[in-house]
Amino acid sequence: MKIKNMLHMNELNLKNKKVLIRVDFNVPIVNNKIMSDMRIQASIPTIQLALKNHAKVIVMSHLGRPKEGKYQKQFSLLPIFQYLKKIFNKTKIYFSNNLNKIQINSGELLILENVRFNIGEKNNDISLSQKYASLCDIFVMDAFGSAHRKESSTFGIGMFTKIACAGPLLISEIKKLSIVLKNPERPMISIVGGSKISTKFKLIQSLAKLSDTVIVGGGIANTFLAIDYNIGKSLYEPKFIDMAKKIKHQYNIIIPIDSRVGTNFSTKSSAIVKKPFEIHNNEEIMDLGDKSIENMTKIIKKAKTILWNGPVGVFEFPKFSIGTKKLATSIANSKAFSIAGGGETISVINMFNIQNKISYISTGGGAFLEFIEKNTLSSIHMLEISKKKYNLKNNKII
Ligand SMILES: Nc1ncnc2c1ncn2[C@@H]1O[C@H](COP(=O)(O)OP(=O)(O)O)[C@@H](O)[C@H]1O
Ligand SMILES: O=C(OP(=O)(O)O)[C@H](O)COP(=O)(O)O
Q1: What pTM did the predictor assign?
Q2: How many angstroms separate the alpha carbon of residue 295 from the centre of ligand 1?
Q3: What is the pLDDT of residues 140-180, one digit of tens each?
Q4: Are 208 and 251 spatial neighbours (Cβ–Cβ below 8 Å)?
Q5: d(CA 98, CA 19)
Q6: CB of 365 closer than 6 angstroms to any ligand 1 atom
Q7: What DSSP state is assigned to residue 259?
Q8: 6 contacts: CB under 8 Å, gap ≥ 6
Q9: Which residues touch 89 (CB under 8 Å, ≥6 apart)?
Q10: How far is the CA of 153 from the centre of ligand 2 (A)?
Q11: CA triple 393-396-398, angle to 5 deg
């Protein structure tokens, strides 16, 4: 992909225009408290740029995975609106869940409620995409963390809006990841964990091709373990077992040799280190065991380039945070060039206070892995189509 194949926000005259910006505010919120604000902070310059240019600024994002068509308080963007009110305290700022009643003036800011409350969002529904497009003169796609999703607010809208352009954060992420991956120093290792198995599993193969070693944790590792063992109630995806078998034989994949298991998914659960063949039906793997941690940190120490997405255990429960903490610390202490990204990975980085020891932190997790694999993403494709249409309309040679 070429950056110049997309329109950039800073090429356009935003003055008095209705500018709708899709950002990624998908941050962890517990009891109305934002646990990690890095993704919000990363979007602020884009919003400021639009306000400074005297646009009528509308911002939209998803938060979590609510059931569409239903308001659910725990997925509301209201805590983020409260947070933004403090930052934009000199700007008139509003919050709305009504797509039919939008009225703002130049220099004002409107935050829309979670787009995933809207029926059709996930399925990239045409009428919802048209509805979003009708709200603006210019659509700015700046949600790098969601740019791999072909949904109404990340893709469909661009098919109907007059102008769709890339925001500064999206451009900056693409540029930085492209530079880093051009000629990585070897050995290069990738660490992939977390719970979003269906998004990430398909990407392991290309990551394995690119890297000298791939370390797996979380639900990804469990899917590899399920090839040979009964892993009880552990999180895994049976539909990826065949793919796991193939990849395991073809590439250098480091699978845990022991794990911390518990009997219930709770902070109160006991944590016992077990070998994979010792796991009972009523147990679930929630972290790496000590021998696995030792092996994996040895590999990390020798690496010259490290890519990391996804916690290797349920780091939110102290007894199951050991593996993630040890690997994260080892990455932080390494002299290798390290790239880490993902919503929860950023929370881990904040939790262990290692943000200054990671060479590059991406706001995307699944998006960053998919970009590495394909060198493009659904939203980038949408922006390229949109620029071609724009150039045709303006009689420019494309
Ligand atoms: N063994 C496991 N079982 C269940 N959940 C896990 C396990 N290991 C990690 N997780 C969970 O994975 C989540 C993060 O996954 P994911 O969203 O894929 O990461 P990221 O946002 O960094 O891309 C965390 O909330 C963590 O508790
Ligand atoms: O947090 C996100 O992805 P990530 O967990 O891979 O970093 C993005 O906001 C995408 O969210 P989604 O995976 O629910 O589409």
Answers
A1: 0.95
A2: 21
A3: 999 999 999 999 999 999 999 999 999 999 999 999 999 87
A4: yes
A5: 17
A6: yes
A7: E
A8: 165, 166, 171, 380, 383, 384, 386, 387
A9: none
A10: 14
A11: 105
Ligand of minimum distance to the alpha carbon of 347: 1
CATH of the domain spanning 186-335: 3.40.50.1260
Listed residue (176, 237, 157, 255) closest to 201, CA to CA = 237
Cβ of residue 311 lying under 6 Å from some atom of ligand 1: yes
Asked if ipTM goes beyond 0.85, one says yes
- Band of pLDDT at residue 358, cut at 50, 70 and 90: very high
* Domain parsing of the chain, residue ranges: 3-168+376-395, 186-335
Residue 26 CB less than 6 A away from ligand 2: yes
pLDDT value at 322 more than 70: yes
- Per the CB < 8 A criterion, the answer to whether 199 and 65 are in contact is no
Contact at 8 Å (CB) between 224 and 253?
A: yes
Q: Do residues 289 and 274 touch, judged by C-beta distance below 8 A?
A: yes
Q: What span, in angstroms and rounded, lies between the C-alpha atoms of 155 and 150?
A: 5
CA distances from 247 to 204, 216, 242, 306, 348 (A): 8, 12, 9, 20, 28
How confident is the model over 30-43, as pLDDT tens digits? 999 999 999 999 99
**C-alpha 398 – ligand 1 centre gap (Å):** 43
CATH of 3-168+376-395 given 3.40.50.1260, 3.30.360.10, 1.20.1640.10, 3.60.15.10: 3.40.50.1260
DSSP letters along 305-338, please?
Answer: EEEEES-SS-TTSGGG-HHHHHHHHHHHH--SEE
Ligand nearest to the CA of 349: 1
- Residue 231 CA, chain-centre distance (Å), reads 28
Tell me the residue type at 64.
Answer: G
Torsion 280-291-326-243 (CA) sign: negative
Cβ–ligand 1 contact at 216 (below 6 Å) = no
Task: Tell which atom from ligand 1 comes closest to the C-alpha of 217.
Answer: 8
The DSSP bridge partners found for residue 214 are: 190, 253
Q: What is the structure's pLDDT at 272? A: 98
